[in-house]
Design brief:
Blueprint: H1 7-11, E1 28-30, H2 41-48, H3 53-56, H4 64-74, E2 81-84, H5 87-98, E3 104-109, H6 114-121, E4 125-130, H7 139-145, E5 149-153, H8 165-174, E6 178-182, H9 194-199, E7 203-208, E8 221-224, H10 227-236, H11 244-255, H12 257-280, E9 283-285, E10 292-297, H13 302-311, E11 314-316, E12 328-331, H14 335-349
Parallel strand pairs: 1-11, 3-4, 3-5, 5-6, 6-7
Antiparallel strand pairs: 2-8, 7-8, 9-10, 10-12
This protein binds pyridoxal-5'-phosphate.
The site of pyridoxal-5'-phosphate has 13 residues, from helix 5.
Enzyme class: transferase
Keywords: Amino-acid biosynthesis, Aminotransferase, Histidine biosynthesis, Pyridoxal phosphate, Transferase
Domain Aminotransferase class I/classII large: 26-345
């Protein structure tokens, strides 16, 4: 026991991010669901023309330029948008504003591990409810738990499955707390749940530029909810959480929806091919609406494959938690990267 820390901080493990090698290394990186394509050319243009004078002053506290670009692109009013330093920060804002000891934070598992980490920091009560084996939502149990905050990632990580808008609607209408719909992978999916934000005062949808917009290094995410719900989050937000560079670059990326959509289409085509190739190698492959695949080797041990791929310069994600420790989460790369992965796995399966 370290006497400097609060007891819950002392007791908690801390989030373990995926391995992040040097950007110029030769490693094929399929472990953090980054987009294999570069950001929009509009982003480079902004960087080239960036005026250092913009850095002398504090940035706009609401990331107004970026917020307007989101408003335009998604057809939602600017005052229904809050911007975060990555969507991770927005998740943290929700927890800080809504969770405390004696209040419950509820989510189905397996899912994004950060929900647990953030809740532990706040000393709120965690209620984890397992998905069924085929990743159907435990709707009755989630409603029964009635959390102050309920997190649903859709598409979910690491499974890649989508929760239907109908099920989310049932959840939203039966919960007295906040329903957070984490849409980090929505750019690769066939549906989204944005309409529920207008329908329900307790629904907040969270998006990121890290996956669909190829800007994981920029750290920019945002949420959409009614201004009443956002008002609590604004109180706990750092005043200048978005730096001037991120705000301007983000606006350029958001305004280039055509480029983002074209990259997403390429990723979706590669996803179909990679899934077929892995099935050929006798992997079970779950249907995915995200830019990654959850796969289970039927013949070899998942951790062995993770280690063997790593030693051959290919990083995928292995989660040691029960329920997923027999599976791998593999980001969809370029067709060339996926080909190297499949050939390497093919050798390892012999
Ligand atoms: C990647 C991811 C995020 C975090 O995205 P950032 O905007 O980079 O912080 C949030 N939720 C889920 C489910 C993710 O996979």
């Amino acid at each position: 026991m370290n006497e400097y820390f609060r007891a819950n901080i002392d007791a908690m493990a801390g989030y373990v991010p995926g391995e992040q090698p040097q950007p110029n290394s030769q490693i094929i990186k399929l472990n953090s669901n980054e987009n294999p394509y570069p950001p929009s050319p509009a982003v480079l243009e902004v960087l080239r023309n960036f005026d250092a004078e913009w850095l002398r002053r504090y940035p706009n506290p609401f990331a107004q330029e970026f917020r307007c670009a989101v408003s335009e692109a998604l057809k939602v009013p600017a005052d229904w948008i809050i911007v975060g330093n990555g969507s991770d920060e927005v998740l943290n804002l929700v927890i800080r504003a809504c969770a405390e000891p004696g209040r419950k934070v509820v989510y189905p598992t397996p899912t994004y591990v950060l929900y647990s980490t953030l809740t532990q920091m706040q000393s709120a009560e965690i209620v984890e409810i397992p998905y069924t084996e085929d990743y159907r939502l435990p709707l009755a149990e989630l409603i029964g738990a009635n959390g102050s905050v309920t997190f649903i990632a859709s598409p979910n990580s690491p499974s890649g499955h989508m929760v239907s808008t109908d099920e989310l609607r049932k959840l939203a209408s039966n919960l007295s707390g906040v329903l957070v719909i984490d849409e980090a992978y929505v750019d690769f999916a066939e549906e989204n749940a944005l309409s529920l934000v207008a329908e329900f005062e307790n629904v907040i949808a969270i998006r990121t530029l890290s996956k669909g917009y190829s800007l994981a290094g920029l750290r920019l995410g945002f949420a959409i909810a009614n201004p009443q719900l956002l008002s609590g989050l604004y109180k706990v937000k750092d005043s200048y959480n978005i730096d001037a560079i991120a705000c301007t670059i983000g606006a350029a990326a958001m305004s280039d929806q055509a480029y983002k959509n074209a990259c997403a289409e390429k990723v979706k085509r590669s996803r179909t091919k990679l899934a077929a190739d892995l099935k050929q190698l006798n992997f079970q492959v779950w249907d995915s609406q995200a830019n990654f695949l959850l796969v289970q080797p039927k013949e070899k041990n998942a951790e062995y494959l993770y280690q063997s791929l790593k030693s051959r310069g290919i990083l995928v994600r292995y989660f040691p938690q029960p329920g997923v420790n027999d599976k791998l989460r593999i980001t969809v790369g370029t067709d060339e990267q996926n080909q190297v992965l499949v050939e390497t796995l093919s050798k390892l399966m012999e």
